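Purpose: get a first structural picture of the assembly so the mutagenesis plan has something to point at.
Setup: two entries, given in the order below. No constraints added.
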Amino acid sequence: MSDLSELLQSPGASIEADDDFDAINRLYLERGWGDGLPLIPPTVPRVEAMLAWCDRPWNEAVAKIPPRYGEATPLRLAANAVMAGCRPEYFPLYLLAIEAMCEQPFNLYAVQATTHVCAPLVIVNGPVARELDINCGHNALGPGWQANATIGRAIRLALINIGGAIPALGDMSTYGGPSKYSFLAAENEAQSPWEPLHVERGLPQGASAVTVVGAECPHNVNDHESISGAGILTTIAGTMATTGNNDTYYPDAQPLVVFGPEHARTVANDGFDKAKVRQFLYEHATLPLGKFSKENIERRFKVAYKDQYASAGPDAVVRAVQRPDNILIAVIGGAGKHSAYFPTFGQTLAVTRALKMHDGALAKSVHDFKR
Amino acid sequence: MICSEPFEKLGKTQARVFGVPDLPLVMIPHPLGGLSLEQVEGRAEVAIPQVVKLIKASSQ
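Result (structure tokens, whole complex):
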């Protein structure tokens, strides 16, 4: 813990501005801070209220956010959470998401600075997802839900304001995407026929966790006709197998398949556990080499994957994903015969991290963090 | 470090945050992807004089 008024004395820790919403927002825009939308002024009382839900020293970095490698201290994160409109009790989960995406395997530098369209997608699991009322149902990745909208936005503000992901300076995405405003949802554990994502990835059932994926926006899979698991998986495999995805190009890529609950139930009722789903998708998400442009075949496949394609004809098989275990699976959404495929940046690995107290104990509730 | 033009500011930022603000950037025209072999050689022709200049400067 720390004394906020003391911390704010250090150079650059705070700015003085007129107590005027419009003037403060003009100042932010002039300085290139923020996502372009109006920001809630991070006044001392508001930041202090946010930090009341943090059990770490407020001025010690929990991570460094590339490409600027700015220090993500709880104090700075709290200011960004206020600006995004977060409720103070969201803060522990927000801090966890930032820590997770700054872990080395996630490769946040590249996710931030690439010309690709990816952004860190955060999937929340466990009791805290329900405690904070994070939407896992209808429109979970869309607007209209405070926790999803504001925690996701706070993450983006930290990526911009602390990490320097400013368009054409630190964020070189060719055209960007709406997922760069906010990209967070909970898994619909109650309606999933399978074990939750965080449990599958090694955490206890009672843990709360985030899983971050360097993903594109969802590519929809509409299947209103299939009444068998194999039928639905065949349609998903077809959506996965398209030209132009990074995941086709990188052997370690971990694309994400999000099942709508109705599709998940049909698939599971036909005896598919997650391992069988992965095997099916691995085998069926294929396209013939001839679907790629002549230049891609000559300059990429026959060079980077010489062993497989040096003398291959147009019917040679190209897989959307190179190993069954590379496919990430989650269940998100409400009613409807839709699922989604999320291609990734390709050179990023998903990271799952549990919500823990500063002493390392698993948190049962965000109230564990309250001062 | 070799940089194509749109990435110059990112390159300079990286040099600064890694503690080598004066790291010289060898600048080449964008893009790098989708080039013919002749065009790649053209990029090298732009880069080589800059590299030679840097080597000469560092040996003085």
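The interface with chain B takes residues 67-69, 113, 164, 168-170, 172, 295 of chain A (CB under 8 Å).
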